[in-house]
TrEMBL record, chain A:
PANTHER family: 5-OXOPROLINASE SUBUNIT C (PTHR43309:SF5). Residues 24-321 form the Carboxyltransferase domain. The keyword Hydrolase applies. This is Antagonist of KipI. Signal peptide: none annotated. It holds the Pfam family CT_A_B. Keywords: ATP-binding, Hydrolase, Nucleotide-binding.
TrEMBL record, chain B:
InterPro entries: CT_C_D, Cyclophilin-like_dom_sf, PxpB. The keyword Nucleotide-binding applies. This is Inhibitor of KinA. Residues 4-213 form the Carboxyltransferase domain. GO terms for molecular function: ATP binding; hydrolase activity. Keywords: ATP-binding, Hydrolase, Nucleotide-binding. NCBIfam families: 5-oxoprolinase subunit PxpB. The keyword Phosphoprotein does not apply.
Amino acid sequence: MSIEVIKPGMNTTIQDLGRNGFQKYGIIVGGAMDTLALRLANYLVGNDEGAAGMEITLKGPRLLFHEEMLIAICGGDLSPEINGEPVALNRPVWVRKGSMLQFGYARKGCRAYLAVEGGFDVPIVLGSRDTNLRAGIGGYHGRALAEGDIIQRQQRKQQGNYAASRQLAEKMDYASFAAADWHISQSLFPSYTQSCIRVIPAEHFACFTAESRSAFFASEYQITPHSDRMGYRLSGAKLELTMPLELTSEAVTVGTIQVPPEGNPIVLMADRQTTGGYPKIGHVATVDLPLLAQFKPGEMVRFQEITLREAQSALLRREATMKRIKLGLQLFSGRGERG
Amino acid sequence: MENYDFFPLGDSGVMVKLGQAIDRLTHEKVRTLADYLEESPFYGMVEYVPAFTTVTVYYDPVLLSDPASPQSPYERVCALLQKILAQVTERPSADSRIVEIPVCYGGELGPDLEAVADYHQLSVEEVIRLHTAPDYLVHMIGFAPGFPYLGGLDERIATPRRGTPRLRIEAGSVGIGGSQTGVYPIESPGGWQLIGKTPLRLFRPEHEPPTLLQAGDTVRFRAITREEFDRWQEVAR
């Protein structure tokens, strides 16, 4: 046995980095909304970055550990506690069997990611463990977690070679958990309080009126309550085309900002459909998608123009940082093994 | 192939536009490029999505970056696609797979069939005849897993969507929405006029490929009785 869901929270699902290669069949990519947080959490427990973790949204679950294990929580700060004591984010945490992990209110951000050593063991469907809620496939029986669910953990390929586990287990003494006294520095990543999202103008940008184009980058948009894993519906300055466009359905992607006739933009998120037919005004730079995923309904967002070239450079820099973190953690783990 | 345009779809995708209108020639160009990418994916390519007039290619900018080159990953992908497009020539799609879809029309499985017939002042039988007559082309798959965008609906039975969409439409429902017809592969809300239902599963994640239909297929609808429908369903179980 592994982890038991005592209370499920608002929308707690098993996610990995998504289901690639099946969009031509109309099957969405999905995956974690904040991929950066899931990847980091996986690094911290010694997993591959694409191992299945738990995506926890706004109102978190209460989880009972049926065995001891190494975990990490990254992403939004949803006030996690183990047996009533606060747990710090962005570091490995060794949890004793019988402990209860509970999430509270969203102090910062909107989505937290829980990784466990080995990753959650749910069946691979079409190459991924991601939960596709609409199609009812993947994850835990194709649905969000519910009370009483018991989620198994995969055994790590190489048993016990992750030094953090052993060091923390030794440090634990009689407490219910032990967190590492080091963590991945927040300074390496976007602050979840930043309100500016970088956007590359899209194919139909020039088809919007001059007022709409300048309002899009100059004004603030509110994330409405009708925002979910499929898309963020925004409300603010309405966007108008200079003349109607005859568009046929074509591919849309995560971060595509489309504008339906009523004029309020929609940012497509992880569970977007594969194709769409509305005019596209912009695309959120991939590097800023994790940040956007942490916006709560009701919050205000502002868009800043970025060129495609700049967006790709920023992404390459981010990935270089991720690589350094990954290697650093591997070295740390390896050193512990020898020592 | 000639006469195409590239548009970036964000920083990890490029859309190749191969025509302006929804027609067979454009469809063949789309299919030619899609077939090539299926057989010979290039390094750094993630996947491709064919649509009515476009093929969108998703790529990994990290794998396609080269610090020694002044080119951005996007420029490198466009150069690669240019080379590919210069190599391939569109061929007529003589090898289109024909998929027959049995449909039980009307009754509780097609609650809007009579309304569609009334709208056009046709008999129910005439609507069924017009719906089963053509060879439909699957232009693309989108909207839902395995949902076909079909070309070829007889204009005489093109019918506006319902004023109030249904909140729940069962998988397998066959409908008409404007000048489009199609089959709902999974339960979803929708505003199409429902004229019948097929016992076939269009989305079957345990199969390879996971959908009954793919872009480029030819679809024929065949009318079956309620008894046949029930028998099909039993066999499927």
